[in-house]
Structures are given as C-alpha cells and as structure tokens.
Specification:
The chain has helices at about 10-15, 90, 110-120, 165-180, 190-210, 230-240, 260-265, 285-290, 290-305, 340-345, and strands at about 45-55, 60-65, 75-80, 135-140, 150-155, 160, 185-190, 210-220, 275-280, 315-320, 330-335, 335. It has a single domain (about 5-345), classed as Rossmann fold, CATH 3.40.50. The protein is built from ten helices and twelve strands. The strands form three sheets. The chain has an eight-stranded mixed sheet, with helices on both faces. By secondary structure, the protein is of the alpha/beta class.
C-alpha cells in the first residue's frame, strides 16, 4: 500500500492553475455496478468507503471518506479542489490537476480529511461551524474535470477518464439511502470542487427528492460570455463530455454554462445557494485566459445577470487577491465576517444578504 502524499500538496487541492488547451476523444463512461446500500461507519471517525463504480483518471477505482454522526439526520457533501486538465501536458507533465496520473486510494485519505478540516467542516466542537452536527461525506478529486465529466479522452495514446460527474452519480446511489431522515443536505465545493458543486446541484437535488439541498460554491464561478471564452468552454465540453451531465431541459445551458445556476436554483425554490469569491482571484484569471480586470468585471456581470435575480441565492465577494475563502476563519468584508454569514444562510436568517465591496 502506498504511503500518503506529502501534505504540502494541500495548496494544490484548493487551487486551479493555468493550463494549456487540448482536445479529447469520446469513449463510453464506466458502467455503474455498485450496490444501492447504506454506508456504515464508526460514528465520528474518518472511514474510507471504496466504490467499484467510481474511477480516477487512471481508470482505477476510488472511493470517498465519511465522518458520520447521529447528532442530526443531515449531511454535508464536500467536493475537494485540485486544478483541471484537458491535454497531455496539463494532465501528465505538471501537478496542475491532483491525482490524475496516480489515482486516489485509501492510503491517500489523510490528504482528503485534512483538506476537509482546513475548510472548517470537521470542527464538531466549534460553535461557529453551522455544520458541526452534520455527517460529512468527503469526495476526493482525481479526474481533472472539476466534477463535470462523463467521458474518457485519449491524450497522446493515454486514456484519461474524466468521469467526475459520473462518480458523483455513483456516490449518490449509496449516499441517499444512508440519510433516509435527512431534512437538509449541503453540497459544498472549493475551487474545482466549487465548479463541481454548482454543476451537480440539480443532480443532487433530484437524487434526494423533496429533501432540501443547499449549495456553497467557494471560488468556482461560471462567468458569462465574453469572460468565459467560447474556445475554452468548448474544450471542456469536448474533452470532459460535460454536456452529458447538463439537465436535458436546460436548453440555455447548451450555449451558456452560467445559465446552469439559474436553472438549478429555479428547480430548488426551497433551497439556498451561495457563491464565494475574491474580486481579484489569484488563480482563476490565468486559468480562464483573461486579465485580472476582466475577471472582476465577469464576476460583477455574473452577479447582475444571474445571481441577483434569484431570491434564494446570495454571494459573498471579498475585495483583494486570494483563492478560496472558507479556510480563513476571520475573513471579513465590509464588517461582515464570512463565518457569521454562513450560519445566517443555514439558519434561514432573513437578514442574510449579499456582500460586495
């Protein structure tokens, strides 16, 4: 069994890095074979749960980590960050997408649990943590597709399974029956995981039916055109098979990925959604191939065109440069502390409102 990776890679796990464009070759996604069975584990201990129908980019099976509790019937599903890739150099000649060339197995679980703890989700004795009484499902990231893919592409003869979305669907087949009394599920992602949280919000809501599903996207905004360049968006669609995971009835999503947040929110009127971002994100502009001012303008356009028209969605934009907000306990903007703002969201405080410099 392999030893855990050095913890210095934690910084990679919550970042997206600039990557070169490439192209993909379509292949059938892996078939789902896992049984629909509840997940069981020793309460409040991290436990690895293997899946035989969830895969890393190298084609080998992976799993997830759970920290279950009986303090409440609710759960948080956390999607880890870690870059993205869509060609041979970005997937195999750099560290810009975590675990793509090596897979993620049980011996890597400490990396995942530390990432989850760094975001503030595993602190059960912290009264400022609004999720302290919830079970935590921590999902590793090893597919390079921001949890949006359902396709195997081949780069220089090397098959690469971009099946992050397909994995989420496989996980849900066991996560849903694990929480039969749930009143609320919170889907949280950082960086690449933030993109994945927004992308999979509708799917998680569909899987849980009438159970309320909230979403927190930390530093994974889908900027509107022209800030998300058409050629980059098309590369994601081609290499990752992203379109296969879009809601079939969201016709606008076929041309504009920022439409997905509108669609998902409208399908979950009793849920709440939040987008967190720095106004001058230190990673995303280069990832998207735009300037810092263009990113700031794109973020403002997203808020004006999509978020402000949704009654149950709010945003927290922090002035300055940085990437991923939740790991910073004392982060404030305009006198509002993020970790006071998040409990407002969870408690349905009517004073919960968007924060902008």
């Amino acid at each position: 069994m392999r030893s855990p990776r050095p913890l210095r890679r934690l910084a990679i796990a919550i970042s997206l890095a600039p990557l070169a464009l490439g192209c993909g070759e379509e292949a059938a996604p892996p078939a789902a074979t896992a049984p629909e069975a509840r997940i069981t584990a020793v309460p409040e201990q991290w436990t690895w749960v293997p899946f035989d129908d969830a895969f890393c980019a190298d084609g080998n099976p992976t799993g997830l980590a759970v920290n279950l509790t009986d303090r409440s019937p609710n759960a948080v599903i956390f999607l880890m960050g870690g870059g993205a890739c869509w060609d041979y150099p970005s997937c195999y000649e750099s560290t810009r997408a975590t675990y793509v060339d090596e897979g993620f197995v049980e011996s890597d679980m400490p990396f995942l649990t530390i990432a989850t703890t760094a975001v503030g989700l595993a602190s059960r004795d912290d009264p400022s943590n609004p999720f302290r009484n919830d079970s935590v499902i921590a999902v590793p990231y090893c597919t390079g597709d921001a949890f949006t893919g359902s396709r195997t592409s081949t780069y220089d003869g090397r098959p690469t399974s971009h099946v992050g979305h397909a994995n989420v669907m496989a996980y849900l087949r066991r996560i849903v029956p694990t929480f039969p009394e749930a009143e609320r599920i919170t889907l949280i992602g950082v960086s690449a995981g933030g993109i994945g949280a927004a992308f999979n919000w509708w799917h998680v809501q569909q899987a849980f039916g009438d159970v309320r599903v909230d979403v927190i996207d930390d530093s994974g905004p889908a900027l509107p055109a022209p800030y998300l360049k058409p050629e980059l968006e098309q590369t994601w669609r081609d290499s990752w098979g992203l379109d296969e995971g879009l809601p079939p009835a969201c016709t606008e999503c076929k041309d504009a990925l920022d439409a997905l947040i509108t669609w998902s929110a409208e399908q979950s009127p009793n849920s709440r959604g939040a987008l967190l971002s720095y106004t001058a994100d230190s990673v995303l502009p280069s990832f998207m191939g735009i300037s810092d001012p263009e990113f700031t303008a794109g973020l403002d356009a997203l808020a004006a065109q999509r978020l402000e028209g949704l009654p149950q969605v709010r945003y927290f934009f922090a002035e300055g440069s940085g990437h991923v907000l939740m790991p910073i306990p004392d982060l404030e903007q305009g006198g509002v502390r993020l970790w006071d703002w998040l409990p407002q969201m969870v408690s349905d405080d009517p004073a919960w409102s968007s924060v902008h410099p």
